[in-house]
Write a structure and sequence with these properties.
Blueprint: H1 4-15, H2 21-33, E1 51-52, E2 58-62, H3 70-73, H4 81-92, E3 113-117, H5 130-146, E4 152-156, H6 158-170, E5 185-187, E6 194-198, H7 203-206, H8 213-231
Parallel strand pairs: 2-3, 2-4, 4-6
Antiparallel strand pairs: 1-3, 5-6
Helix pairs in contact: 1-5, 4-8, 5-6
Length: 232
């Protein structure tokens, strides 16, 4: 059984990580220069740990902190357009107590969800390198283990989808090749979680109509239904 101290120890290790020189330099440069709209903020400027309900049945995996989102606020999907889109949906389906995420002190609480990412540092151009992803994946594995076998995983974007599967296979799971498609549902096998894929709620997707709120609702409606069925 995981304890609060286990989570604190992992968060401390993540926030002190300096394994990737390129990412360390970029996240700190962004935090120092800041964006004009946020000149009065003291940026987080460190790796961002996962957060949420540590008894969650669902793990949500994103790509990486936004340079002026989580890299500024210190919490995943907080303070940018991706988070605005995500938390509105989570609130609609009862996974979040409010539809907005602005700062660490805004009162946001998640129910049955733990949100994390493949990479913990904001990457230039939102494009982490393969070796940077490899350095970060052990943190994802440890969060997964501390959740004590979640029932399901939601992967936000292809990189999250591919690397979630990669990490499960590295743990010994025999999972065949799976195709990424929005709202695709995959039961991964006995003693393994199910996996649902979703387009990432980035502005690039939501402002072009590639991902609409209705399409995103399809994902969270499926998640809610799967959890409800497991309880019956």
């Amino acid at each position: 059984m995981s304890t609060e101290q286990d989570w604190i120890a992992l968060e401390t290790e993540i926030t002190h990580c300096r394994k990737c020189p390129r990412l360390v330099a970029w996240r700190e440069e962004v935090a120092e220069k800041r964006r004009r709209a946020y000149m009065d903020w003291v940026y987080w400027g460190k790796p961002v740990p996962g957060f949420g309900d540590t008894n969650a049945r669902v793990l949500v995996v994103g790509l990486a902190p936004g340079a002026h989102g989580a890299n500024r606020t210190g919490r995943m999907f907080t303070g940018d357009g991706s988070g605005d889109f995500l938390y509105r949906a989570l609130h609609r389906y009862g996974f979040a107590n409010q539809p907005t995420a602005r700062s660490l002190e805004d009162g946001l609480a998640l129910k049955d969800l733990f949100i994390t990412a493949v990479c913990r540092c904001a990457p230039p151009g939102n494009k982490p390198r393969s070796e940077e992803i490899a350095n970060c994946l052990p943190y994802l594995d440890r969060e997964y283990s501390l959740l004590e076998q979640p029932q399901g995983i939601v992967a936000l974007g292809r990189i999250a989808f591919d690397n979630t599967l990669r990490q499960l296979r590295q743990k010994g799971a025999e999972i065949p090749r799976l195709d990424f498609a929005h709202a695709a549902y995959y039961p991964l096998g006995e003693d393994l979680p199910w996996l649902i894929a979703s387009y990432h709620p980035s502005r690039q997707n939501t402002q072009t109509g590639r991902l609409t709120e209705s399409m995103f609702d399809d994902v969270w409606s499926s998640v809610a239904g799967l959890l409800s069925n497991r309880m019956e």
